[in-house]
Amino acid sequence: MSPSFIEGDYVMCYRLPWMHLKIDDVVVLQHPNYPLMIKRICEINQHGHLKITGENSLSSQFDFWFSPSRVVGKVLFHFKGQSR
Predict the structure, then answer these.
(1) What pLDDT, on a 0 to 100 scale, did the predictor assign at position 64?
(2) CATH code for the part of the protein at 10-79
(3) How many CB atoms lie within 10 A of CB 22?
(4) What is the DSSP string of the chain?
(5) How do the domains of the chain map onto residue ranges?
(6) pTM of the predicted structure, to 2 decimals
(7) Closest to 25 measured CA to CA, from 81, 82, 74
(8) Which of 7, 54, 56, 77 is the most buried (most CB within 10 A)?
(9) Which residues are within 8 A (CB) of 61 and not within 5 positions of it... i.e. 6 or more apart?
């Protein structure tokens, strides 16, 4: 499966204090070792932590739990870059 987002694409996202995140939402988040990542929420546990996953099998190394406080915003629009 090819990734939905590739280098050169643009996204528009928003973050509100009362924003409700749910499974299958695509979010921009702060990662401890990388500047920003775009990932999909695949699970939410009883403590409200988010399990995120990538859009392809190569990114499965980044499938792990995050605090919602690391979410920069929820993706509203995706604009494909000129390299496509």
Answers:
(1) 80
(2) 2.10.109.10
(3) 9
(4) ---SS-TT-EEEEE--TTPPP-TT-EEEEE-SSSSEEEEEEEEE-TT--EEEE-SSGGGGGG--EE-GGGEEEEEEEEE--TT-
(5) 10-79
(6) 0.82
(7) 74
(8) 54
(9) none
Backbone angles phi, psi at 24, to 5 degrees: 80, -5
Structure tokens at 4: 């939905």
**For the chain, what's the residue count?**
84
d(CA 26, CA 10): 13
Tokens 């929820």: give the residue. Answer: 74
What mean pLDDT comes out for the span 26-43? 88
The tokens for 42 are 């695949």
Please give the pLDDT value at position 31.
Answer: 82
Q: How far apart are CA 82 and CA 61, in angstroms?
A: 28
Residue of 18, 37, 17 lying closest to 27 (CA atoms) = 37
Amino acid identity at 16 = L
